[in-house]
Amino acid sequence: MYGNLKDFLSSELEQLRQQKLYKHERIIESRQAAEITVGGKRVLNFCANNYLGLSSHPELIQAAHKEIDARGFGLSSVRFICGTQDIHKTLERKVSEFLGTDDTILFCSCFDANAAVFEPLLGPDDAIITDALNHASIIDGIRLCKAHRWIYNHANMSNTEELDPATGKTLKGLERCLIEACEKNCRFKMIATDGVFSMDGDIAKLDEIVVLAEKYDALVMVDDSHSSGFMGKTGRGTHEYRDVMGKIDIITTTFGKALGGASGGCISGHKEIIEWMRNKGRPYLFSNSLPPSVVGATIKCIDLLTESTALRDKLEKNTRRFRSEMTEAGFDIIPGGHPIVPMMFGKYDNCSALAVEFANRMLDEGIYVIAFSFPVVPRGKDRIRVQISAGHDDGHLDKAIAAFIKVGRELNMI
Question: Is 198 a catalytic residue?
């Protein structure tokens, strides 16, 4: 039985290798931090989601140890049977206070949260209007529910419809999709968007989305995984950044990036929605509780970020400097202000192979970055996605920028 499948997979894997699209895992032999050990060599890490440098913060590690000692390694249960400890409720309360919402429900990951959020709320009489570049977890979550689906052209708020000459597909603006959902007499309408889009680092126009949502009586759902903890003046997320706190109905986010970097996620929002999720959210009902160590460390993380914006402010400063100097050097950087800094290769011949070669040479220079190619990004949109951290100091930035310029000149890119 397996023979035919084995031959097929072997052939497909070989094609990936020949196309330079095969994904290799580099092995890290140290803690996650700005400086890590790879292959016995100390290198600077510029591709982690460790935006605030908290993944190995001593106070988070101490908090994790404390909860393991006090409450054990795991719960061996889902939440509603015997898997809810007092610290789970504490974390849910603190996240709600931090995000400015009524209530919060915890999941093992934000992928699970996005898998849970749509199906219990929306049925065949309802509508989901989703950004074309939303994260895979939102796409998969939407597939689980029976609502009518509209996909609007990325970040296009308009009442327009046009043909994409490259694909032959019809591209619609958000308002056009909302109008069509109203004409179809959909009962409930939900707009779903990333807060920050993880490949380009661009920030959703939540202020404009909220205006359209109010005009057409729609709910707004935002995945803020690449925002929570550092976007906005006090790090609450893109809803603070766009000045729409209190106007977003559902926020999903992760604890696996800026908020400690371990695991876990949540849905946060209106009280009744969260209560419904506790009763109907399948990943919540059928997955084990977050372990005490992760819960305790995430509580400590929220406390640190509530007390001070120092890490968020340092991240903003580092991001501004890196973006400025890389652009001045002549690299093709997607403009913006987010610590995701995409360095694009699409304008060069054999862009996929070039991006891989660039990343390999950067590792030789002591800088750890990764090339992104199809299917993670569209063909011809190959890139190295640099990610800046508050854990980086000026010396780290000096070395990274110098290495980028050296390799860029060697490969005739600048």
Answer: yes
